[in-house]
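For practice. Any example?
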Amino acid sequence: MAQQNQANPYYEFLHARRLEAAGDADGALASLQRAANADPASAEIKAEIAALHFRKRPVARVEAEKAAKEALAIDAKNVEANSILGYLYATSVDNARAASASPDDIKNAVTHLERAVAGTIGIDLQMQYTLGRMYLRNNEPQKAVQVISKVVAQSPANESARRLLAAAHVSAGNLKGAIATLSEVIDFVPELAADLARYLEQDGQMREAAAAYTVALAEQPSNRELKLQRILALMKAREFTQAAAFAGEARKQHPDDLNFTNFQAQALFEAGDRNGAIALAEASAKANPRDLQTQLTLATLYSDAGRTSEALTITESAAKTFPNNKNVQFMLADAYADAGRTTDAERVLRQMLASDPSNARLLNHLGYMLANRGEQLDEAVTLVRRALAVDPDRPEYLDSLGWAHFKRGELNEAVKYLMAAADKLPTNSEVQDHLGDVYARRGSLQEAIAAWNKALAGDGQGIEKAAVERKLEDARRKLPR
């Protein structure tokens, strides 16, 4: 019997399959080695040896790779050998950190998986899925979309494939495609709801994002992060009453999490219940004197309610307690400015800038403050240009630069930068108001009216509604009849 096994590679091949199925991997490997010795020109036997090493746990990578390469040296199109090498390289990519994955491993994974897919009859879903992942790692999102779409077509409820296809669409610049990929199955694959919500937010569909977060929460009712994201989406959608209600519910469910109290206060304030919002924030600030965000929430509400001195008192206290917190220092500068203490506001910003001279946010903040005051306008332009050198095309900085040019009377420069800012921030009321002012100064009343209407329809931040309405009325009166 032993003599027959050595002389018959086909028998040894089948015998190896039986031994592996019986749990005898070593016996199977010995049988395959006898088959390979009997038929050294067989790529299939070498490929089967590679596959056996690959299936072992832990995987015998070195042996699997060696046998697969020996098989491909005989037949470069061998499906089994190409698939084993493709999976081995893909595993190396997966095991490496995202930034440290070898480009050669990624390219080799793609090359061998492509060959394996091309030689496979029908669709091997796992192979296609892995190839799609490697296309993404190789910065080939369109190819990833094509491959993963085949997996989704064969397995419509496959959560991982849907998620990967959506990511491929986003990488290819097709956010709508990602949304459609997840939306069409969300009713029976609710695990994808959180991903869908995030894509909807990126697309500016805040109400729809909040609805998707609600679906996600039905699956994960205790997930605090999802609750916070839903509240934030509703606030961005200006659905403040609903945001306040959800924040109130979450506050009861998670009394230790002050984020929900802060968000509820902010939402109540925006919904029109200013007294209720401030009372809630005051109680929370009193109960949590060392919680920075709680103190700053109350300071912000005081400021928005016109209670400038109270806002300044809280912010000064926070700045003393947290002297190295840049957000607190920014708020302190704004609080001084709101209180008319512009010298103190400028002092705070210059002190921060002295220790962090390349901070774009600081450069812009000081530059805009000077421009708004109509003082040191040359320096204001210089400061904002420095901010843009650090963070080019940032719309808030473009607005500041345009506003500084406007204050200097340089209307052509002003309109150039403000138009760019307004295009990037179409719902930002302050930017649209600035653009309207420039158009009006240039005598372009129709354009000014359009910009001011956008300002009134926007987020309402940074403008006095009554003042914008007066400018609108005045411009309309001046229009030729």
Notes: The chain is about 75% helix and 0% strand. The chain has a mean pLDDT of 94.
